[in-house]
Model the fold of this input.
Amino acid sequence: MRFVPFLLLFPTLLLAQEPGGKPDPPTALPDDGQGYEHIERFIQVLETVRQRHHDADSVTYEHLVNHALEGMLGSLDKFSTFYHPETYSFIAEQKAQPELPGLGLTLAKSDQFLSVAAVRDQSPASRAKIAPGDRILKIGEDDAAPLSLQEALAKLSGKPGESVTLKLRRQVDRQDYDATILRVVVKQVAITDALILERSGERKVGYIHLNEFTASAHRELEAALDDLEDKGMKALIFDLRGNPGGLLGISVEIAGEFLPPSTEVVFTRGRNPAEDGPPLSTPDRKRKKRDYPLAVLIDKGSASASELVSGALQDLKRATIVGETSYGKGSVQQIMPMGNGTALRLTIAKYHTPSGRTPHEVGITPDVPVEITEADRELLDLWRRRAALTPEETARLNAWTDPVLTAALQALSSQK
Done:
């Protein structure tokens, strides 16, 4: 079997690395003597469905087996998946997922269905209660099933501020529902805020919000830190709330801004030795020493690279982590072709912070936990787009105090 590794930029939720070299054969699990019995049961169900189901068009071997494999991969973890031929063909050709950042949706296509592959946290789709696995029945007034992925992406694309109406079927209860989603502006820059906080007291405290670990994120962070230091910054609040992750190498470089050179910050461990990568370390040289007090803000939307950076800084006693337990994404996926145009995206290993712990499925627990309400999340979103608010929104924002930022300032006030 030939493995095809390439870097996936899946902002909801995926941090991937490109394995080096040809992997060793996987380690087989012990045979419990029941393998054939279970496979025989699968074939029995398969043939019973083919003989007895009323819709002959839905019981081809390809349809039944591919959807059975879809269910198998979906039962493992929320990041492993089975790619039907059209979805895999799109990913292989485009070197990208069929996603709509302005809506927060990633699509998938099988022989008969258009469905939701992933939903980005804190996105319009998430707020509309759309869930991975839900099938898209209609886009506006048009049936979605006959559409190709390219056609579906074109119909769902549009200008920020415009809305699109979908009819969907929930995976959990098979109930149909309608959702109207408002497209939002996708931020092109990684650093969306860099300023000196007005209420930081005698010691000037800087604030930086990193939106995502993009290719330009380290360069933008360096420039922002230089500027705030020139303005007299003596402590920093680094906001990773809602940051879904991004590029592994960039996360290591960013951690290196606050850690000594050549510090090990992350390593991978899998069931097979071939999946165990060498530890990744911060750059062996750094331009400036940045050893001032540091607080990192996280919430349930902080995932992947955000968790590796906050977890490493926490393990190494370099930062105080403030907020709520993070999302819990710390795994490595690899795409493996399976023949007949299909493929698997399979979780093969987990990332670990310097102490050996993994954030996968448990998240990073903050040093200073803060209860965050849905109203707080909504008002934080208003603050981040404060340049274009209505008078009513401005009044609401002026009456609000960010509880996580307040807790971070209190934590920093006790540090030298």
